[in-house]
Amino acid sequence: MQRRNAAVAQGAFHVSPVFIERAEGAVIEDVDGNRMIDFAGGIGCLNTGHRPPTVMKAIHDQMDRFLHTSFNVLPYESYVALSERLNAIVPGKGPKKTILVSTGAEAVENAVKIARAYTKRPAIIAFEDAFHGRTYMALSLTSKTHPYKAGFEPFPGDVYRVPYAYCYRCSYSKEYPSCDVFCARHLEDTFKRVVAAESVAAVIVEPILGEGGFVTPPAGFYPALTEICRKYGILVIADEIQTGFARTGSMFACERLGLEPDLVTMAKSLTGGLPLAAVTGRADIMDAPGVGGLGGTFAGNPVACQAALAVLDLIEKDNLCARADHLGTMFQKRAKAWQSRWELIGDVRGLGAMQALELVKSKQMREPASDEARKISQYCYEHGLITITAGSYSNIIRLLMPIVITDDQMNEAMDVMEAAIASICEAKATVATLV
């Protein structure tokens, strides 16, 4: 850690002081020989686990052939094959096309470029609590100020933000279902008071908020939102970077939430751990930029392309979508009991293996319990479980365990998490008694 502090800029953060030596499946081993269960999954990049054998073989086989040519100079078959595969599985109507890039933020930036090229409109609408990346256009779409945006201003313009369907903290003080998904229908009012509909190229949305707290919108939200966008000729960009590739119990979260996107951005678990991202969408939209308008030196790296093809095979062969649902059911059963037992657990939510606990100081007031979330995360890594937090208030414990985790490992991890919550709640109770 002393070497890290001396050599690495402080902005390159990490959530634990654990330095990894090796990993397999859902288990990591640090440089001191401690074995830990991984509930962070490289921030959602390891749905198929650490080092799956078939993915490793695909990587090695490609390394024996060539590492890089740049697709813009010398194309290769794996880029085409992966594009064909994504075109076939990504939700949305009609023929599709794909471009490959290197990171999720790049995918978002290119989706915005494509949407603007197709519609000839400048404006993009994003949501509160959204996270779309750290490059400048992506940061303008990202919501959370600290640590992501503060001090890096100004950001690209023509980005407008509206409240998300966050029922636990409704921006309009309404209740579902009597609200009739007012948050979606309020988009019409945005066109009257904030930005004209005919100026809007696209609405970009995470089907389930990622960094914003694993918030799943209620039924009816996306059908209503999509209907309004279609009415005004506005494209819908689904950011499936964290929700994709079996995490939510389907290949893409759109499939379970009634969202029909025009463009889909993907990254993270696409390759099982290598940098690769994609934008897939309607062919006529994807072809709006001219020849040479899209690309990048490392975009669609051949090693990463082969890894991605192996990942897609593995998800299908091992039915990881069903496995994700099973893990979600396991967690929900335990977490609902925690919620009944402890005042700290304000909300338990999730879809498939994308699960979260929202921590509050009291269930009545719902004041975010950010310090408690940090303490729980620390307790967990001190007792063999790597976790990460989320949310605009950093008060949410999110689960991104590899979907290949065994039931025994899952139960062991939840035992640690339960002990962490109990220790925090008992300490608070002791202090209250003394006072």
Find the CATH topology of the largest domain.
Aspartate Aminotransferase, domain 2
Give the beta-strand count: 15
Structural class: alpha/beta
CATH class designation of the largest domain:
Alpha Beta
Overall pLDDT confidence:
96
Q: What's the arrangement of secondary structure elements?
A:
Blueprint: H1 2-7, E1 20-24, E2 27-30, E3 35-38, H2 41-44, H3 53-63, H4 77-89, E4 96-101, H5 104-119, E5 123-127, H6 136-141, E6 159-162, H7 182-185, H8 187-193, E7 200-205, H9 221-231, E8 235-239, H10 254-257, E9 263-266, E10 277-282, H11 283-286, H12 302-317, H13 320-341, E11 345-351, E12 354-359, H14 370-382, E13 385-386, E14 388-390, E15 396-399, H15 407-434
Helix pairs in contact: 3-12, 4-12, 13-15, 14-15
Q: Can you tell me about this structure?
A:
With 435 residues, the protein is α/β, with parallel strands linked by helices. The chain has two domains: 2-51 and 319-434, Aspartate Aminotransferase, domain 1, CATH 3.90.1150; 56-317, Type I PLP-dependent aspartate aminotransferase-like (Major domain) (Aspartate Aminotransferase, domain 2, 3-Layer(aba) Sandwich). It is built from 15 helices and 15 strands. The chain has helices spanning 2-7, 41-44, 53-63, 77-89, 104-119, 136-141, 182-185, 187-193, 221-231, 254-257, 283-286, 302-317, 320-341, 370-382, 407-434, and strands at residues 20-24, 27-30, 35-38, 96-101, 123-127, 159-162, 200-205, 235-239, 263-266, 277-282, 345-351, 354-359, 385-386, 388-390, 396-399. A hairpin with a 2-residue loop joins strand 1 (20-24) and strand 2 (27-30). Helix 3 (53-63) runs antiparallel to helix 12 and helix 14 packs across helix 15. The model has no long low-confidence stretch (mean pLDDT 96).
